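Here is an idea for our session: we take a single protein and study its fold together. To get us started, please write out a protein record for me. Once you have written the record down, we can walk along the chain together.
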Amino acid sequence: GWLIRYMHSTGASAFFIVVYLHMFRGLIYGSYQKPRELVWVIGMVIYLVLMAEAFMGYILPWGNMSYHGAAVIINLFGAIPWVGDDLTQWIRGDFVVGEATLNRFFALHVIAMPLVLLLLVVLHLGALHEVGSNNPDGVDIKKGPKGNRWSEKAPADGIPFHPYYTVKDLFGAGFFLTIIAFIIFFAPTFGGLFLEHDNFTPANPLATPEHIKPVWYFTPYYAMLRAIPGKLPGAIVMGAAVMILFLIPWLDKSPVRSIRYRGLLSKALIGLFAIAFVTLAWLGMQPGSTVQTWMARGLTLFYFAFFITMPIWTRIDATRPVPERVTTHD
């Protein structure tokens, strides 16, 4: 039982680490640009469903942090004008988070959401197969010369998925799983990041944890929520922070895909964006002092400014000529 529990909790965090790395790789190499807009949008839908899956699973251990965290997030729906209170009660299935909430979240977490995720992954891979994978150079190999040692019709710079990509991915997965195994056996809570200490206490509506916070992979958005005065404006900002990611393919006006051929401005802004996101994640784990609240407000402003001004700085940034074929970088 203890092994399954720690495999599940550590696996959830490990999965989100991979997802965030995957999204960041797509951001720096322009994997969302034409003709891969649909691949990016489906990937973002997968991200949304993953967040729902993680939240519904988070309440199931019925720990004290799970209980109060779920109450806080579900109550956010009460900020919606006119229908908020009824919607909140409908989601909970009761006037408070209780057995009805557990039963429906269990069914959604174990059956419904995984099936939706499976369907979306198939669509994601299907869309990717249609347009082909991107590469670190951002070169469309389908427009290049044809013919390689495996096929006369295939792109000259292409290689078969098997065995090359499968072996590469198996090696990466093996290395990553080795690290995860060390965490499972020697540091399963990971200092309270993967499993909060308050969640080892059974849920008690009368004993609120000193600091209610979500798991680390939600804390950037939680920091934005807390930084905005008022429940409704905070909920709008938090939702917009996720939804604006859908628009990246149309916000980026750069003539090149890869960060390798972009100018210093793009590289600096993307680097600052990554630092801001990680800092917001850290702030979301903290109790929230006055200084930290103002830091979160400033970083939230930068987060949205990064995307809103993207059509401008991607246009004016200097770029280097992109090679016609894939190059090697030693």
